[in-house]
Amino acid sequence: MARKESVTKETILNAAFELLQEEGVTQVTARKLAAKANCSTQPIFRIYSNMDELIEELFVKACEFFEAFYEQSDRHTVTPFVQLGNVYIKFAAEHKKLFEFIFLSPERYGRSMYDLVNGNAGYVSREIQSAASQGCQNASELFMKMWIFIHGAACMSLTGDYDLSETETVQMLKDSYHAFK
Length: 181
Fold this sequence. Notes:
Radius of gyration: 19 Å
Number of domains: 2
Number of strands: 0
Oligomer: single chain
Distance between the termini: 69 Å
């Protein structure tokens, strides 16, 4: 009778995700992952042909985590791009290592920044449509202006240079939307 595999792909991926959240992607090494998963490195390389394959799958899991974070966030306003901006800035503040991995990494596995933020649910597309339906003449251009502002604020939160409350953030995003419009 064959021995039952005790370390599963799910176990390894979940351990890698925990390690990513705690220490960042550069620290997701075979040895650290094996220690985190309470196994040797052998099951890791039985399941994944190399660490790059695991990291790519970890990237997908991190993107799914961002989308779940977005979906669980309260909507504060109907002003276009405010919800998207608020959630993005909040995600950067609360999940620094994941934010860096998803949005600041040069390796995005064939996805653009737009694809990552838009997600499978079309968050950006919906905001652009909302702005257009509210009379914005060039909603895509407005998104670009808002995005530069939003991404800058999110990056500031990584370095501790962003200290606005959520209420202040929402108001700042509303003000920016109306100023850019």
